[in-house]
Amino acid sequence: MNLTKNQFKEDYVKRLTLTFAQTTTEASLEHKYLALGKLIRDYISESWAETNNYYTKKKCKQIYYFSMEFLLGRLLNSYLLNLNIRDVVKDGLRDLGIDLDTLLELEPDPALGNGGLGRLAACFMDSLASLGFPGHGCGIRFKHGLFNQKIINGYQKELLNNWLKEDFLWEIKKPEKTVTVRFGGVVNLVNTPNGIEPVYSGCEEIDAVPYDIPILGSNMETVNTLRLFSAELPEEEIDLNGLQKGDYQKFIDKKFAVEAISQILYPDDSSFQGKLLRLKQEYFFVSAGLQTILKRYKKLKESIHKFSDFVGIHINDTHPAIAVGELMRLLLDEEGLDWDSAWDITVKTLAYTNHTILAEAMEKWPYDMFKKTVPRILMIIEEIDRRFCEEVSKKYEEDYSKIDSMRIIYNGEVRMANLAIIGSHSINGVAKIHTEILKNRELHDFYLLYPERFNNKTNGITHRRWLKNANPELYKLVIEKSGPECLNDTNKFINFLKYINDDNVLQTLDKIKFKNKEKVVAFVKNKYNIDINPFSIFDVQVKRLHGYKRQLLNVFNIIYLYNQLKQNPELDIVPRTFFFGAKAAPSYYLAKNIIKLINSVANVINNDPDIRNKIKVVFLENYGVSIAELIIPAGDVSEQISTASKEASGTGNMKFMMNGAVTLATLDGANVEIYDEVGDNNIVIFGLTSQEVMDLEKNRTYNFRDILNSNPDLQKILTQLSDGTFSENKEEFKDILNHIYGEGDPYFVLKDFSAYVEAQNKINTLYENRRGWLQMCLVNIAHSGKFSSDNSIRKYAEDIWHIKEVKRGE
């Protein structure tokens, strides 16, 4: 965008005056921020409209990415960078006595996701727009997101995350595009002159109101759309006569029940009501999204039979898998197609990404709940299931065990992963090893049936947010040394390797890292009143808290190191600061107990003078995108220590790598591909392999007591969990102890402990050789370009979606 400083100042003052009737000296900081945001949105809107008009005019095939999460992060700075006007805006505001950085801090962090799934979706949205692909997002406008995490006396407390208490600056409400979503009731199939049609009675109708957010590409001409739906009570449902008679409570109850659908991300599904709400959320946004897409398609005046030539729909994990049933419903009931035609279109249109190996994460719904909530969809799924079983029985000569493993409805449950696989033309994993495990173990029967549908698409991250936005000085260095072609092709980051022996570049890397660490030091001091050493190793594990991610292994090593220092305060180690950031699901008591242990250990270590500040432990409360943008550029060690075979991919590993951290990892998920890129000398690998874990699980030969009996250090650690060392309440960590003793150490924490301690010692030795460490950092940065989401999206576009880059200027 060509914008002079004077033009910006004129535009800004005018926008501030027109919006708030105030001058720059009178306006509050909030009004100054809002005026800037509205002005930037004005700058984007023209290209946004032109992009949509061009897609329609040229009848471009468009992709719609259906995801329960879109963890966008703050957008203002990204918009400024993608418009290439950040410096102009910063200078212009300074002339007006306004600090841009202060305004940037006022933007709320959109609470539209929880972890890697949402961050991946956000990266994909950025890459689609930046590469000029016609691709949009579809999800829910969660009013309260997941929850705000507050640590009180070491315990996680979940507080309401009311990020939408003020209007979200970047969204545009589109009430004229509202669609109706039906739940419950009774559906009867009746014969009519037009054939068999469904007749609904007693169902609940809800308005799905769309809110659009612009996704601006770095090419400054493509602006795609993230459409989020809000659940609202239809106006015709508001009975004014009833209200006038004082029947307020009935109205309030009904309104609350409807709006609950888009109130909070991931309701606690440990209860029936929680499960029901989650199912309603998933059908709500899928139905709304598909109805909207179909309406838009009809404007092309093309045959419904060509739908898949112009539309692709991607199912991001199992949450939107109900799209198979809903698209069939629309094609059968609304468009009047016969079954075979509708099914052919559905399979050609839909594609599915599997994000997990854990069976519990492949969603299953109770049959009766499904029938009560979406009865017409269940009818359709039952017919899909019947036809599929018929197909498989012919192929496998009535091998019922094979049929039962693959069918959709089984044992009183509706299995959503099976539905997604059967109803999609493409099924992909998100790392090479993950895809191979799916093909050879978890989804092996499906792979044998549909080998042509399975493929791998390793996850990626957008360098525009995780390097250019989060670590601008490092970004400038990489571009300066690797060449301007890196701006559009991160594979050219590899040119940075030429400077591996350049001491000036290595020293510059060191200075950039230290500045980033100083920012974290100031943040931690201000927020937690903890003094940390910027010269210490910043060892970071920030991710969702789950048993298989093994934060427990990390904290066990910290306790071990603490015990070593207590025995020998003169122990010669590089000072170490261990950072954790994680939210635990409210009903996941083991995870919450691990958070309490981390904070209890931190409290003891950080206040023990015998340790002489050689180690510190910091738990970063309420971890999210903005904190990630602070801590990732400062990280020295990237903890990627999941139980091998359990982590599908991971993307935090890629972000740390791109920012010059050294990965400490098991050979799991995308760690394997990072290892293949950087080589044995530039990553620290430890622990069981995926095959070894799977063999132990299959053969049930692992006995944690054998490990425990041979390791006095581990014995001491487990004893300390109940002897008052870290809590006066000796029952405090009983969930953790039960996880080990009662469940038999299911994630092999004890099995991998000695190897992990050895790996940590190796980190200490490597870090002491400062030049060698910086060379390792440089190698990681140079090889990180492969893991750009741009590369991932190009592969999706070519292999799955069959779409091409659009250049409006041509």
Question: Can you give a write-up of this model?
Answer:
The chain is of the alpha/beta class and 810 residues long. The protein folds into two domains: 374 residues, 3-Layer(aba) Sandwich (Rossmann fold), CATH 3.40.50; 259 residues, Rossmann fold, CATH 3.40.50. 49% of the residues lie in helices and 14% in strands. The chain has 33 helices and 23 strands. The strands form five sheets. Strands 1, 2, 5, 6, 9, 10, 11, 12, 16 and 17 form a ten-stranded mixed sheet that branches. Strands 20-19-18-21-22-23 form a six-stranded parallel sheet, with helices on both faces. Strand 18, helix 22 and strand 19 form a beta-alpha-beta unit. Helix 22 crosses helix 31. The longest helix has 29 residues. The mean pLDDT is 95. It catalyses: [(1->4)-alpha-D-glucosyl](n) + phosphate = [(1->4)-alpha-D-glucosyl](n-1) + alpha-D-glucose 1-phosphate. One of its GO terms (molecular function) is pyridoxal phosphate binding.
